[in-house]
Amino acid sequence: MTSPGRYHLLLSSGGRPVQHGWWGSEALARRKFRNWVGEYGSMPEPRITLTDEETGEQLAVWPDAVDA
Q1: pLDDT at residue 23, as a whole number
Q2: pLDDT value at residue 37
Q3: Composition of the chain by helix, strand, coil, percent to 5
Q4: Are 47 and 63 a contacting pair, CB within 8 Å?
Q5: Side-by-side strand order, sheet with 7-13
Q6: What is the pLDDT of residues 26-59, one digit of tens each?
Q7: Which residue in 63, 67, 33 sits closest to 46, CA to CA?
């Protein structure tokens, strides 16, 4: 079975997952992240995360997390 890719993008709206995708290239995944912000950023309560599934590191989050 083929791995879906190391870099995982997740789009959620109102805390519920809406769309996700995996890419093997970090550069491509980061481009997709930027595209998704432009395409889906106006959804109700959007959140987009880019995670390195190999290390578990969260590489990017939109909108930026703000400490309360």
Answers
A1: 96
A2: 95
A3: 20, 40, 40
A4: yes
A5: 16-23, 7-13, 46-52, 58-62
A6: 999 999 999 999 999 999 999 999 999 999 999 9
A7: 63
Q: Which residue intervals of 1-68 are DSSP H helices? A: 26-40
Calpha distance 30→22 (Å, rounded)? 11
What token pair was written down for 19?
A: 């769309």
State the pTM of this model: 0.86
Closest to 37 measured CA to CA, from 5, 14, 9, 66: 9
Greatest extent of the chain over all pairs of C-alpha atoms, in Å? 43
Lookup: tokens for 62:
């939109």
- For the chain, the residue count is 68
Gap between the Cα atoms of 37 and 63, Å rounded:
9
Per-residue tokens: 4: 């879906």
